TrEMBL record:
Belongs to the asparaginase 1 family. It comes from the Bacteria. It comes from Selenomonas ruminantium subsp. lactilytica (strain NBRC 103574 / TAM6421). Signal peptide: none annotated. Its EC number is 3.5.1.1. Keywords: Hydrolase. The keyword Hydrolase applies. InterPro entries: AsnASE_II (IPR004550), Asp/glu_Ase-like_sf (IPR036152), Asparaginase/glutaminase-like (IPR006034), Asparaginase/glutaminase_AS2 (IPR027475), Asparaginase_C (IPR040919), L-asparaginase_C (IPR027473), L-asparaginase_N (IPR027474), L-asparaginase_N_sf (IPR037152). This is Putative L-asparaginase.
Length: 330
């Protein structure tokens, strides 16, 4: 039986249009609709029964929590419908890893969800989008991709949502998983997995996804970027502005300058959970100073600050606290 693959188009460079085919910047992201995108890769229809819809046509740097939740709600609906064997999402690369991670947190089925994008606009010479779409459909239709959560497929490689990050501001091979590497590849059309997936589904993801996708927005959880001489005034500022959680992107193993640490400890005392993550792109954030433990900070493990933020937002919505988060991140 031919697999039924549903494509959700969100915009991004993969749907970008520039006046000049030599241009890879200065284009309009999200300018092309799903039909135009698919017209560039007629081969997808040989691989599977393809349906699709345009959910958004945005530059993904502008994605709002409401749009992320709308995407998650549509994915949930499709997974529950019994009408699809795989889902492909075309998305801008700037926040691709965030949407992928949010969807992975909420994933509850063995049906593959594959996110792809492109670094060159659709109108560029050597545009990378069409092959990325073809590979994403191949992966979404592959039996081997079942039970591997949400996957990110670009540039012939397959990554787990938890570990993948946009490493380069400009290179086509930008998506990499610095902790652990890619989990597979698409070689000349052949889908091959050589590592197990790093699944990061929340416990009870089916009911959590129902709860989260019924929200109109997510709690205000800012990320503060650590640097020398941080005196903690931004911690005070975000508290005054109603932060319900804080992610501190510390240095190295989530190190926090003393004055900022004092303010963050006061935030925890006031019931605002704090995750320590890192500005370093690889390595785990684990226990460090004893004072961090005493203050009740949560180490982000393998999560970069942007993914830790989404996890904390989900935890706040679900009324989960420090102990639950520590358990989940262990
Ligand atoms: N700014 C674009 C976006 O995220 C970049 C891209 O898609 O590569 O939508």
């Amino acid at each position: 039986m031919r697999k039924r693959i549903h494509i959700l188009a969100m915009g991004g460079t993969i749907a970008g249009s520039a006046g000049d085919s030599a241009a890879t910047t200065g284009y309009q992201a999200g300018a092309m609709g799903i039909e135009e995108l698919l017209a560039a890769v007629p081969q997808v229809r040989e691989l599977a029964e393809i349906t699709g819809e345009q959910l958004a046509a945005i530059d993904s740097k502008d994605i709002t929590a409401a749009q992320q939740l709308q995407l998650a709600a549509r994915v949930r609906e499709l997974l529950l419908s019994g009408e699809v064997d795989g889902i492909v999402i075309t998305h801008g690369t700037d926040t691709l890893e965030e949407s992928a991670y949010l969807l992975d947190l909420l994933h509850f089925a063995d049906i593959p969800v594959v996110i792809t994008g492109a670094m060159r606009p659709a109108t560029a010479l050597s545009a990378d989008g069409p092959l990325n779409i073809l590979d994403a459909v191949r992966v979404a239709a592959a039996d081997e991709a079942r039970d591997r959560g949400v996957l990110v497929v670009l540039n012939n490689t397959i990554h787990s949502a938890q570990l993948v990050t946009k490493m380069s501001a400009t290179a086509v091979e930008t998506f990499q998983s610095p902790n652990g590497g890619a989990i597979g590849a698409v070689n000349d059309g052949e889908v091959c997995f050589y590592q197990s997936a790093q699944l990061h589904h929340l416990p009870n993801a089916l009911s959590v996804s129902e709860k989260l996708t019924s929200q109109k927005e997510l709690p205000y959880v800012p990320i503060l970027y650590g640097h020398s001489d941080d005196d903690g005034r931004l911690v005070k500022l975000v508290r005054e502005n109603g932060a319900q959680g804080i992610v501190y992107a510390g240095m190295g193993n989530g190190s926090i300058p003393e004055r900022a640490e004092k303010e963050l400890a006061a935030a925890v005392q006031a019931g605002i959970p704090v995750i320590r993550s890192s500005t370093s792109v690889s390595g785990m954030v684990v226990k460090a100073e004893e004072s961090y433990e005493q203050a009740g900070f949560i180490a982000s493990g393998l999560l970069n600050p942007r993914k830790a933020r989404l996890l904390l937002q989900a935890a706040v919505v679900c009324g989960k606290g420090t102990a639950d988060l520590r358990n989940f991140l262990r």
